Amino acid sequence: MKRKSKRKPRIETSYMCPTCGEQIVIPIDRSQGAVQEYGEDCPVCCNPNVIHVEFDEAWEEPRVWADAE
Prior knowledge:
Helices cover about 0% and strands about 50% of the residues. By secondary structure, it is an all-beta fold. Strand 3 (about 35-40) and strand 4 form a beta hairpin. The chain is elongated, with a radius of gyration of 14 Å. The termini are far apart.
């Protein structure tokens, strides 16, 4: 019998765009690693951002922030 994982591999979270200040909701995937970094254009102002994601078992929520590219 397979055990169900208590962790959801994909969840939604948000970050604040460093250029326009809008709160942007994004899906993140825990299965991609404990530390993630990728580029994404802001859907509001279209400026490029580098999204940083960190997971830790001790935290309830992942740490997510963006830097302007």
